[in-house]
Each structure stands twice: as C-alpha cells, then as structure tokens.
Design brief:
heterodimer, A: alpha+beta, two-stranded parallel ribbon, two-stranded antiparallel ribbon, 14% strand, B: alpha+beta, three-stranded antiparallel beta sheet, 4 helices, extended
C-alpha cells in the first residue's frame, strides 16, 4: 500500500469509477479522513485550494521538490502561475490543470 | 494554401553582431530572457514562484532524475488527478518520496500527463496504467 490517489472530489462520476476500479466503498465524502487502506482520496477542491497552493509554495521554497526538464509543461505552469490572495488565476496560468494535479498530489506528504 | 513558414531567430544568431556576449550573460539572469531572447512562447511571468525557485527545482530534477535513480516499488507515491470536464483538460502528476544519501527528504515528479479536454475513458486508461506499473 504505497500509492495514494488524490482527486478533485467535484467530479463524483470519476471518483466513483476509480473507487470501483480499486474495489472501494462508494459511500464517501471528500471531507472525511481516510484510513490507510483507502487509495482513492477525493479532495474538496473548493475549500482546500488555498491551503494546497500555500503548501506547494512552501515545499518549493524549502527545496523539497525535484522536477526534471522533460516535464516542461509542468515547469511552464509553475513559471506562469499567477494568484491573487492565493486564488490561482486560471486564465493567465498556462497548463493550470497540471498545477492543480501537482498541488493535489502533494497532499500525500507531510513535510514540516 | 501555405503562405509562409515560421523562422525563429534566437539570440545566438546575433551574438557578436548585434548582441554583446557579456550583455547577454547579464540578460540571462532576468526572468524574461527565454521569452525575449530565446524565442520561446512563455506568456506572462507568474507571481507565485520566482525564477530561481523553479531553476532550483530543475537542478534537483537533474540531480535526482529517474535515469540516475530508478523509480522504486517500495517508496511512497502520490498521484494527483484533476479530472477535466468537457471544456477543460485532465492533469495527472505522479510524485515519489525519496531519501537522499544525507538523509534529506525529497519529493520528485516521476510522471506527468496533460490530457487535453480528456474524456473519462481516455483518462481511465492512464489510471489503469499507473495501477499496474506501481504494483498496486
């Protein structure tokens, strides 16, 4: 059990499809805490997005994140990431879907 | 009908002609260098991360690349999925936690995909792939 999947919980259909794929219960809410056996972990993006952006910023500032040059779209999304009061402006951020996926994936780690 | 073709002339074409090498070295430190002198489409510069922070990420990426240190089945991995609806794409980022020789914790991006305006079927193919590859 060493892979966790963090997914935007607003797309319930997709979450349910993944839950079925990994034979998990379809009774879920995105604000619940997950046990270690739960692979598919829906995240309430609308309430968590600021925290996740702040966490991403902290991890990059502390030099904990390594990104290879081949992930050029992800690097471009970081370079162009533009926010106002921790609200990411998707219309001026290139490849913002990748940035969202990156901040979701960082929920899997607790670095202080 | 093809009316022409695009020619990208970066700064190297004008080195020692219209650009002075020392001046270019100074300009390289500026965040807009790639856009203004290297012919890259980078849109505007964001306000969250500085160029030096992103350069450091890249430097670490070089140091801890998957070519040098292969992905391990035993390390903790986290996959972030931003599923797209009909008007937006699907982003998938796979991270792996590694410990360096001096016991420092590091998170590296081992894979990342953008599925433009993805359908659920196409995205599912990727999720299935990760499930199989990572021994889950």
């Amino acid at each position: 059990m060493n892979v966790a999947y963090y997914i935007d919980g607003s797309n319930r259909a997709m979450v349910n499809l993944l839950k079925i794929r990994w034979q998990e219960s379809l009774s879920w809410e995105s604000n619940e805490s997950f046990g270690s056996n739960v692979k598919i972990r829906p995240v309430n993006f609308s309430t968590e997005h600021k925290n996740m952006l702040s966490n991403l910023h902290a991890i990059i500032s502390k030099g904990y994140l390594a990104i290879e040059e081949k992930h050029d779209k992800l690097l471009t999304s970081l370079r162009t990431a533009y926010a106002e009061e921790l609200n990411l402006k998707k219309d001026v951020t290139s490849y913002s879907d990748l940035l969202d996926a990156l901040r979701l994936s960082l929920k899997g780690y607790n670095i202080e | 009908m093809l009316l022409g073709h695009k020619i990208i002339l970066d700064y190297t074409v004008g080195l020692d002609k219209i650009y002075d090498r020392a001046e270019i070295e100074k300009k390289k430190l500026e965040p807009e260098f790639e856009r203004e002198y290297a012919g890259k489409y980078l849109s505007r510069i964001g306000n969250i991360f500085s160029s030096s922070q992103i350069d450091e990420c890249q430097q670490l990426g070089l140091e801890f690349s998957t070519d040098k240190i292969p992905v391990s089945l035993y390390n903790l991995k986290s996959v972030g999925i931003d599923p797209g609806f009909s008007s937006s794409g699907t982003g998938i980022v796979v991270l792996e936690h590694i410990k360096t020789e001096d016991n420092k914790h590091m998170i590296r991006v081992v894979d990342c995909h953008l599925i433009e305006k993805g359908t659920q079927t196409r995205s599912q193919k990727y999720y299935g792939m990760y499930g199989l590859n990572m021994g889950t």
